[in-house]
Amino acid sequence: MSLSDESGYRFRSLGLLAGALLLATLAGCQVRPLYTEGSTGATAASLASIEISDADDRVEQEVRNALIFLTSGGAGEAVNPQYHLALNVAHRTMGVLYDQERDRAGAGRIVVKADYNLTKTATGETVKSGNRSAVALVDFPDQEFAKIRAIRDGENRAARELSELISADIAAALGR
Prior knowledge:
By secondary structure, this protein is of the alpha+beta class. 44% of the residues lie in helices and 30% in strands. It has two domains: 1-31; 35-174, 2-Layer Sandwich (Double Stranded RNA Binding Domain). It has helices spanning 3-27, 43-48, 58-72, 144-174, and strands at 37-38, 41-42, 50-52, 83-95, 98-99, 104-105, 107-120, 126-139. The strands form three sheets. A four-stranded mixed beta sheet has the order 3-4-7-8. Strands 1-2 form a two-stranded antiparallel sheet. The chain has a two-stranded antiparallel sheet with strand order 5-6.
């Protein structure tokens, strides 16, 4: 047997060993749908049993309404909640394209941020906590009412996106 035959045999056996290790590692992974019944119970039923704290302003109310719709599947607020979601939302509007000749911003960005804490109602144990943010870009027209409406529409878009992010976080935590 020559030296090149022996080194080729080693590379083939190392390749087979690496492939076997990769397959063994992947065998431990599992992929399952987010909103189906899992080993810990029904995620959809758990999501529908969440009560959400009251809102302090209009943007927080938009986030709250969207979260209620997403968690309950359109059925409304939970009657006998098993979980409580404490929600604190802040928003800010910033001009980004500043026109110095006209002394105003031509476009802006709206940032909506939320801190949330999901706890079990019976025990007070924290299931999931975190913070998320969403950004909506807007154009600022010359008319003042149109600018106000553009800002409100941007806040609504960012609130819906933020509620989807929070809902996905909560669903993943309850699915475990």
